[in-house]
Amino acid sequence: MSWTARILTLFPEMFPGPLGHSLAGKALERGDWTIETIDIRRFATDRHRTVDDTPFGGGPGMVMRPDVVDAALDHATRDGLKPAIYLTPRGKVLNQEMVRELSTGPGVVLLCGRYEGLDERVIEARGLMEVSLGDFVLSGGEPVAIALIDAAVRLLPGVMGAEETLEEESFESGLLEYPHYTRPADWCGRQVPEILMSGHHEKIKAWRKLQAEQTTESRRPDLWAAYQKRMAQQSAGQIQKKGRGS
User: What percent of the chain is modeled with pLDDT above 70?
Assistant: First the structure.
C-alpha cells in the first residue's frame, strides 16, 4: 500500500507542482506514493461557494468557516487516514524527526490555511495537529504542504536508493551536514582538502564528523546544545550498562 498525501486546499491547481518532478515525481509515477487534492470550495453550501466570513470581535481579514472545513475534513478522512494536520504559522516547527515519523505511517491529511486562519472550534473538535514551516508568514499552507510531502516521500523505502545517503544527511544525526567537494581538485585557486583525497576512509569519516560538529556549533547553537545533551545521555547510559555488567 502506497503512502498517501491528501491535501485540502482552495488552490488544487498548485499540486503536484514541484512534487511531480525529480525523486518525488519518479516515486509518484512508480506508485510509491499517491496524491489527492480536495477543493474546499466543494463543501460550501451557498451558490457563491463561500468558504470564509468576517471574524467575531472585529479585526482585519477573513476567517475560514468551521462548517465548510469540517465537511471537507469528513471527506478527507473518510477511510480513517491520519494524522490530519493544519498548516499554520503558529504550529510546531517541522523538523526531521517529525518528517521521519510521518513517513512511516499510511500518509497524511494536510489542511492548507488561508486568509487570517481557521475557526478555532474546528481545530479543537477535530484534534488537528498544527505544523509550521518556520517563524515567518506565507500567503497560505500550500508551500508548506509541498515541503512536508517532499521531505516525507524521500524517506520512503526505495525512493533515495542508498540508505547511507539518508544517514549522512543534515539533521539525521542531529548535526548539520559536512561540506562536499568534487572535481576539479583545484578550482580558481581553491583546493580540495587533502584528507579527502588520501583514501584513508576512517580519517575522512572523522574529518567529516568534525566539520559537521563545527558547522552546527557555529550556525545552529540550538541543534548543537541538543546534540551535546544527547551524546552526554548516551555516554551516561553506556557507563551504567558497563557498571551493571561488572
Answer: 96
